[in-house]
Amino acid sequence: LGSIRPIDTVYHSKTLGVAGRLYVVNLLARTDRREAMSCLARAMDLEFTWHDATDMHSRDMQDIPERIRWWRNLNRINETVPKADPSPFKFKWADDVDDGVSRIGHSGADFWESSFPESPLKPLPLPPSPDTRPPVLDTYGENGDHFGTAFLRPAQISCWHSHYQVLRRIAEGEDEVAIVFEDDIDMEWDLEHRLRSMWGALPSDWDMVMLGHCHSEEWRHPALKGAPTLHPAWHTLCAHAYAVNRRSAKRIIRRLRTEAFAYSRTIDHAFRHLSSRHIKVFSVYPPVVVQTYDLGSDIVPGRTNKGRVHWLEDSAFERIALAKQLE
């Protein structure tokens, strides 16, 4: 009976069986995290492709908030009213957002990086000194006058940029499906078997699968037939583990670089918003990949270790720790 189903005898895959590549987003300076993830890869016999995360202290990450301020003022709703911060602006998606076929090229917020070669945009003047302007605020929904109360920080802008760039790699690559991990995660020891078991239940037009999430209630939608832990996404936040196919990556990055939407909120809130209106997202509940926070957070400095390893049935890192005790 142990070898009746095809999945019972399938060969092990270094990319978890359902993906062509496993990306890990990692800051070059965080060698501690890279070593931890390398240890995980060795233990589970996985092959990671490293994606260099964007440093929040880079010049581009300092310039992008100025471009957001510039674009919002340029597209403010009432041009007769003197410029103000925040300025309600006209929200419009780029014309090509649903194109999952054509070459990606460069457009919209791609040109907001000062290091972009041959940018068609003129350089912006330096910020005033001292800078007494109100901070650039986040927005929500698809309305240029729906401002939040949080200001856009370099850390969240660099996180958005990191995920945007890895999605570009997927969109421009040859893999039909890729999985993206952040570098502070733990996972179920039998993750490959779980993914293989549920993957066939996905509809052909799926866009993303959130393998890990937080602050969510993913049990609210009924599970897919044949996959009791796979649900249509309800309210997934956190972006530490997700699968995406190449076709969908093209459509997602076209929305992420639309000027009215680009960098307007944290990247996980952006994914959640897109899932509510524009892309078909599924989530695994309970999650099969969790954040650990063992090595501190670059996005939220000072965050205490409130990892979610207890959500896992069979933590890979706990197995590694037990093996070390037996040596």
Question: Short description, anyone?
Answer:
This protein is of the alpha/beta class. It has helices at 31-44, 59-74, 154-172, 191-199, 246-256, 267-277, 316-326; strands spanning 21-26, 48-52, 137-139, 147-151, 177-182, 185-187, 208-210, 230-232, 241-245, 281-284, 289-291.
Total count of helical runs of at least 4 residues? 7
The average pLDDT value, as a whole number, equals 90
Largest sheet: 7 strands, mixed
* DSSP, total strands: 11
Instruction: Quickly give the structural class.
Output: alpha/beta
Compute the CA-based radius of gyration: 21 Å
Distance separating the two termini: 35 Å
SSE pattern, N- to C-terminal: EHEHEEHEEHEEEHHEEH
Helix content: 25-40%
Q: Which residues sit in consecutive blocks of at least 5 with pLDDT less than 50?
A: none
Strand content: 5-15%
Name the shape in a single word.
globular
Spatial order of the strands in the main sheet?
Answer: 2-1-5-9-7-10-8
Q: What secondary-structure arrangement, pairings included, does this model have?
A:
Layout (H helix, E strand, L loop, with lengths): L20 E6 L4 H14 L3 E5 L6 H16 L62 E3 L7 E5 L2 H19 L4 E6 L2 E3 L3 H9 L8 E3 L19 E3 L8 E5 H11 L10 H11 L3 E4 L4 E3 L24 H11 L1
Parallel strand pairs: 1-2, 1-5, 7-10
Antiparallel strand pairs: 3-4, 5-9, 6-11, 7-9, 8-10
Helix pairs in contact: 2-3, 3-5
